[in-house]
Amino acid sequence: MSPIVVPFHQDERLAPGSLPVTGQVVAPTLPDGDRWARLVRLWDAVADAVAGATAPTVVSGDCLVALGVLAGVQRAGVDPSVLWFDAHGDVHTLESSTSGYLGGLSLRLAMGAHPERVAGPLGLRPLAEDRVTLVDARDLDPAEADYLATARVRRATVDEVEVPPGPVVLHLDVDVIDSGDLPGLLFPVSGGPSRAAVLASVRRVLDTGRVAALSVACPWRPGDDPRRAELLSALT
């Protein structure tokens, strides 16, 4: 099955060619005004596309689209756990974020933060902390480290990932790959696993046959590095 392609970074349409992969494009017209309403409109369209597909791969410009992927799997009657591969924690709240970058809230929103902005309007059933495994996350802000120190979120390296029982949504932010192995990332982090190691880990998870959907976030700067197309080809 060809991937579902969501050519957005947050609520902004990406330039043509930013995601070097072909597939079913989900690009609804977003309402003017409130940013959260725009985002929920996008995620709702993603959720509908995912709910109508079998084990889809969704390629987008940032991690927030994973909220639509999760909601879509739930709309299809599946109650998944989540494996979240990322160099960052993505567990900020609006109050703890110092940058204001909404992508840094992605996983925390999936676990029910700010329900009036996301879970309620989107119809998303928040994940319990112990249904989440955060993979790598080597670059944490202090507030994220404090939260994870007491949260029931599981932690793992890419080599140690254990797939929980039942169906899973597998989310991969490509910046989990060492920045030296994938140049041009918006938020590069060194000291991480190689592209080969990440792909091998993802393949082990996919080979279990329990992945209800694969979400691939590509937060990178404009460019045409052939390694991007090669990576997406290997994932899709």
Structure description:
- The chain is an alpha/beta fold.
- The protein has one domain (4-235): 3-Layer(aba) Sandwich (Arginase, Chain A), CATH 3.40.800.
- Helices cover 29% and strands 19% of the residues.
- The protein has 7 helices and 10 strands.
- It has helices at 35-51, 65-75, 106-110, 119-122, 142-150, 195-206, 226-235; strands spanning 4-6, 8-9, 12-13, 24-25, 57-60, 81-88, 132-139, 154-156, 168-173, 211-217.
- Helix 6 (195-206) links the parallel strand 9 and strand 10 (211-217).
- The radius of gyration is 16 Å and the shape is globular.
- The N and C termini lie close together (9 Å).
Relevant terms:
7 helices; globular; alpha/beta; 19% strand; 10 strands; 236 residues; two-stranded antiparallel ribbon; eight-stranded parallel beta sheet; single chain; Arginase, Chain A
What is the strand and helix layout of this fold?
Blueprint: E1 4-6, E2 8-9, E3 12-13, E4 24-25, H1 35-51, E5 57-60, H2 65-75, E6 81-88, H3 106-110, H4 119-122, E7 132-139, H5 142-150, E8 154-156, E9 168-173, H6 195-206, E10 211-217, H7 226-235
Parallel strand pairs: 1-4, 1-5, 5-10, 6-7, 6-9, 7-8, 9-10
Antiparallel strand pairs: 2-3
